[in-house]
Specification:
The chain is α/β, with parallel strands linked by helices. The chain contains seven helices and 14 strands. The termini are far apart. The site of fe (ii) ion (FE2) has 5 residues, from loops.
Length: 287
């Protein structure tokens, strides 16, 4: 089964959002949407989400699911805004509860912040499956970048979030709280066990030395042969040493603080204070 896939690239955060549609029908899912955010002004903007909405309407599609591959640390999710305008259920990995627990502590959230994933409509675990119209989607739990990362396998397409990137760029960082290079290695082996001609759609692209265009689609076969971090059967210990050395040199993503506080709430802003205003917190020297 070969679903139709439409990609939306956000240049501000290098994020790729996808609409995946059943081959013979009008039902689709949206994966990893972006709510634009002007950090300096503390102001959100729905331009990226509106582009997706306009496209869905122009194609006359029904949205069954609004899926997250994980709690993103580099962009805010537009899931609630899309749900308001298009319908659909919001789904994420069941280990969101671990992420909520970790960052509930980091941001000193009170009891109003539920750590049970109840902000989402569905929590998926390894081997779960669900339907997008007539099309079946299978869930792989692929932790490492974060504990709740999922890969959605839909027909011949795998939406891998932040696990593998394009072969010339490599793999996702593993140094956020709850991340693990060992876990990422094991997760990637699961993805690479899919048939070689499986289309892989990555969650971000940053170009790579020698490549001038953004790209987001590759295959399992290409990843196995060419991935600069894990191709040609690179062993676990070599991968972990490489990954941890690289991660030690990376700065925090520009939007990590507002992203986490939004995305751990399924894309909702923090509860307004008594003046009706929502605020993001900045924990000093905590990350
Ligand atoms: Fe991420």
């Amino acid at each position: 089964m070969t679903p139709k896939v439409k990609a939306f690239f956000d240049t501000a955060t290098n994020t790729v959002s996808y609409a995946v549609q059943e081959p013979e029908g009008r039902t689709c899912a949206i994966i990893d949407s972006v709510l634009d955010y002007d950090q300096a002004a503390g102001r959100t903007n729905t331009q990226s989400a509106d582009e997706i909405i306009a496209w869905i309407k122009s194609e006359d599609l029904q949205v069954a699911w609004i899926l997250e591959s994980h709690v993103h640390a580099d962009h805010l999710s537009a899931a609630p805004y899309l749900q308001e305008h298009l319908g659909g259920k919001i789904g994420i990995g069941a280990n969101i509860t671990v992420v909520q627990d970790t960052f509930g502590k980091v941001f000193n959230e009170g009891t109003a912040f539920q750590r049970d994933g109840s902000q989402f409509d569905a929590l998926f675990e390894e081997d779960d499956s669900f339907h997008i119209g007539q099309m079946r989607a299978d869930v792989l739990h692929t932790p490492g970048h974060t504990p709740a990362c999922l890969t959605y396998v839909i027909g011949d397409a795998a939406f891998v979030g932040d696990t593998l990137f394009m072969p010339d760029f490599g793999t996702a960082r593993c140094d956020f709280p709850g991340g693990s290079a060992e876990d990422l290695y094991a997760s990637i082996q699961k993805i690479l066990a899919l048939p070689d001609d499986t289309r892989i759609f990555v969650g971000h692209d940053y170009k790579a030395p020698g490549r001038d265009e953004f790209a987001w689609e590759t295959t399992v076969g290409e990843q196995k042969a060419l991935n600069v971090h894990i191709g040609e059967g690179r062993p676990l210990d070599e991968f972990v040493t490489m990954r941890e050395a690289r991660d030690a040199k990376l700065g925090m993503p520009r939007l990590i603080l507002p992203s986490l506080q939004t995305n751990m709430r399924a894309g909702h802003m923090p509860e307004p204070e008594e003046n009706g205003q929502s605020y993001f917190k900045v924990p000093i020297n905590a990350l």
